[in-house]
TrEMBL record:
It comes from Anguilla anguilla. Residues 45-231 form the Aminopeptidase N-like N-terminal domain. The record marks 423 as: Transition state stabilizer. Residues 266-470 form the Peptidase M1 membrane alanine aminopeptidase domain. The active site is at residue 339. This is Aminopeptidase. Belongs to the peptidase M1 family.
Amino acid sequence: MFLLILALLPCYSVVGISSDDSPHVATNGLPFPWSKVRLPNYIIPIHYHLLIHPNLTALNFSGSVRIEIDVKNNTNWVVLHSKNLEITTATILDESEALQSDKQLPVLEYPAHEQIAIFSPKILISGEKYFLHLEFAAPLADGFYGFYRSTYKTKNGETRVLASTHFEPTSARMAFPCFDEPSFKANYSIKIRRRQTHIALSNMPIEQTVPLEDGLFEDHFEASVRMSTYLVAFIVCDFKSVSGRTTSGIDVSIYAVPDKWHQTHYALEAAVKMLEFYEEYFNIYYPLPKQDLIAIPDFQAGAMENWGLTTYRETSLLFDPDTSSASDKLWVTMVIGHELAHQWFGNLVTMEWWNDIWLNEGFARYMEFVSVDATYPDLRVEDYLLDTCFAAIGRDSLNSSRPISSAAENPTQIKEMFDTVSYDKGACILHMLRHFLTDDVFQSGIVRYLRRFSYKNAKNEDLWDSIANTCSDDDFTSGEFCYSSGQAAKNAYRYAGEHLDLKVMMNTWTLQKGIPLVTVDRQGSVLKIRQERFLKTMLPSDPAWLSMQQGYLWHVPLTYMTSSSKTIVRHLLETQSDTIKIQGDVNWVKFNTDMNGYYIVHYEGDGWDTLINLMKKNHTALSYKDRANLVHNAFQLVTAGRLPLSKALDLTGYLKSETHNVPLLQGLGYLETFYKMVEKRNIIDVTQNLKAYILHYFKAVIDKQTWSDTGSVSDRKLRSEVVSLACDLGYLPCVEKAKDLFNSWVKSNGTISLPTDVTETIYSIGAQEEEGWTFLLEKYQVSFSEAEKYKILGALTTSRVSDKLLRLLNLGMEGEVIKTQDLSSLIYSVARNPKGHFMAWNFVKKNWNTLVEKFQLGSFCIRNIIIGTTAQFSSKDELEGIKEFFESIQEQSSQLRVTQVAVENVQKNIMWLERNLEPLRMWLQKNLPRGTN
């Protein structure tokens, strides 16, 4: 019958069937009626009625879905997504719920595109509504996508099972057949069956619970607002919760495994506070009646913004007052801020397609800083915005970078879009835009964007239109930035007395890759400025240089201060070169004030010498952000071959007097990076001299650190980093103190409290001895604090005994003692150990196919593994080995951008050593006091 139906197809007037020269073939050998990766747009889902019944004993689930669909063109086919589901029944009903056919409808499957097609013998008429009814079953997934199983152990050693979802970006299709693309927004009415010992959670509150036979219960959830499939969520578990309510009446609950319930209270406080902040900042009420936050024991990402039911890794939500550090608290607060920002940016307004995922992730990353700064100013979150932009620059200064808005079609390409460019660069250009337009104009513009596209989808240009047209909305006036409606329609703004086209300007930051290098040449009272693309792996003398520069031009909102100016001066650079006239008698000029702009600055002539002298004599003439920015820019320019290493190192000489943690850690971070590089290459004289230099010049900073949890968050962050570095370099007072504390902790059988900010350092020193390492591994297995376990695991990877490192990798691969979710960071940590970097890389090569099965190609974990293991290499032989491996897995590596990033990173390391090893050796010999080496 099936063959007969297909043979009759030409009799019908069928619209919307895609064809190409090579028709796709379904799994049963018949032609599949659709050839594109994206679904046809002539069937629109309106409302899903979804029933899910997980069996936590048999580890499978069954379900049914009735999708109300709107037909735009006459057709016999409904094409939608399904992956790894067994479809047992397929029927189509008309608006009166009469069956279109009294027979089972054939279902064709095309796994390469994760699509199924259902054939209707009767034409589905344009303008009519129908119901597609499907019944399905599948095992609960292994891994971290779709509807998957997670486990945890109770204090009694009993293993408990739960089932949870993670759908972003393309895995809702693993849990139920659906139109799994962000623009197909619909309403959802969800029912979940469970045992009495469990609870069920979903996006909306429970409307009613119906008892069934066999001790089952069926929870009926309220109908949802319109949303994309990737935001749907449901969980069946036995967790406990703590609850509160916002001033606007939103119920907020934090869920965790019962034995960790006491770690949920800080998250509740933070979530309530930040939800209230966002309602005020966006001037739009949170549209759901509740917001649940739940810590899932097995979770690949940091967290996920499912509307009304945000899911988290335990380390991203739980805060244990006894074992969590200041950095842990900041992390939890920022992740909650990120996911709650998504309830507006991403959930209320969703990007039209994954090429613009930055509209979700860049905004959420930036709103972390805005929200935490407003609600928890003592956490000094603004300090970390600089690190975010430094990370973005690191990626963006390689030719293997990509534009913020980039093409992405298949699931692997889409997963790779969730990267530093979308998150960190996205946040940094939004920060630049906010300072460019002022806080009020920026805020009113994004409120307009959110209101205009509520429950809809938006593109890159829709954001710029909304911000530029703010003045045409009576609700939002913007002072001097308001023009006539005619000007507003042309996106006219005033900046430094000039008019500009905001969309054209911002397209230079989102539609082309890379970061501009602004070169400043001061000649008396005139500044000659020019821009070019900043590249770290190529010199202007290289043959390909000109082609790499061709077509690159940014509209750069420059800011600068001078020795005679207490105010920030602004200038918009829209051309390759320009001149600026400066006023008064000026000793120095510093561009990119407070690093609010996303660009690198190089000072020609004696510009760098002047700034180095200023930092030595009076570094407080510049803000701490400006000081950190100078240190960062100097070393970036060294890597790019634009500045001698000796000048950048001379600049760090002032750090002995530095009291702020951000520039201090920036300078120390570069010195530590160089130390790790020469240590791994076994360049003994430079390794010893650099260690001696760091310990000598930063002795005062090291010695003043207390082994306690006192002081501001900034003090505590500095303490954590400095103590860790000092002990890692073998500074005897540090090592002895850590040993004493570790021995006391072991004697108490791990019951005494250690200062949380230096706990990992104490563990790391203890892990160097056989007994200490064994004791730590035992404690790891019984700890109920994920913050503590994270610190223990980090310490265990510092062992210099190869067998121990290999044992950890094997435990991570087994996934019992060390959960699979922690395997990618474990591999990365082992690779950072000089004794483990070859081991980690060999482990990845040997287990590549298994790792891809565990984490999926394109995922964050796979990218982390590739970058984390290869970034340690700095020789041509190692580079060739990496290329050979990528060639051997060509079918997979050709789909990944990250392999190009890895190769270019190693090329950068090779070039750095070739150019700078001898200058580093000479500089250390010259600057080390006698008797210290």
